[in-house]
Amino acid sequence: MIKEFKDFIAKGNVMDMAVGIIIGAAFTAIVKSLVADLINPIVGIFMGGVDFTNKFIVMGGDGTAFASLEAAREAGVGVFAYGSFIMAIINFLIIAFVVFMLVKSLNKAKDAAAKEEEAVEAAAAPAGPNEIDLLTEIRDSLAKK
Q: Which residues are bridge partners to 57 per DSSP?
């Protein structure tokens, strides 16, 4: 059983998946920084200085106003953090777009490599008889009969 497990781990697919997960985690950190540090301020400018990350509604409680979402959570009150949800949607859309562009460029490169390979195979394939050769062969075979 241990040998089977070692063989499973040593397979390329498992290693590729592990590398993908590690790179994905690092990529997520980059996208979070992109959204928080670059996109949020730009969106805030167009929204009149609104920072979505601190948009929330206190659910229940005693009517106390909180300066930030973090302060409300620390106080233990229920919050409806719609700003965080909006930011999660923006993060998702950015990640999905970047992955789409990455897959699209990889597919384009793969198609170009396949076309190049087909061209090499076509050039290496022996040329068949031309029309004159075929007609000559048919004439000669008919003449023998």
A: 80
DSSP string, 74-110: HTT-EEE-HHHHHHHHHHHHHHHHHHHHHHHHHHHHH
Number of domains, the chain: 2
72-93 confidence digits (pLDDT tens): 888 888 888 888 888 888 878 8
The amino acid at 79: V
Q: In angstroms, how far is CA 132 from the centroid of its own chain?
A: 54
Query: What tokens appear for 74 in the block?
Result: 């620390």
Q: What is the pLDDT of residue 97?
A: 85
13 and 65, same structural domain?
no
DSSP 8-state symbol, 126: P
Task: Please give the helix or strand (H or E) that residue 57 lies within, else none.
Answer: strand 57-59
Percent of the chain with pLDDT over 70: 92
Q: What is the pLDDT, as a whole number, of residue 125? A: 64
**Residues 35 and 25 grouped into a single domain:** yes
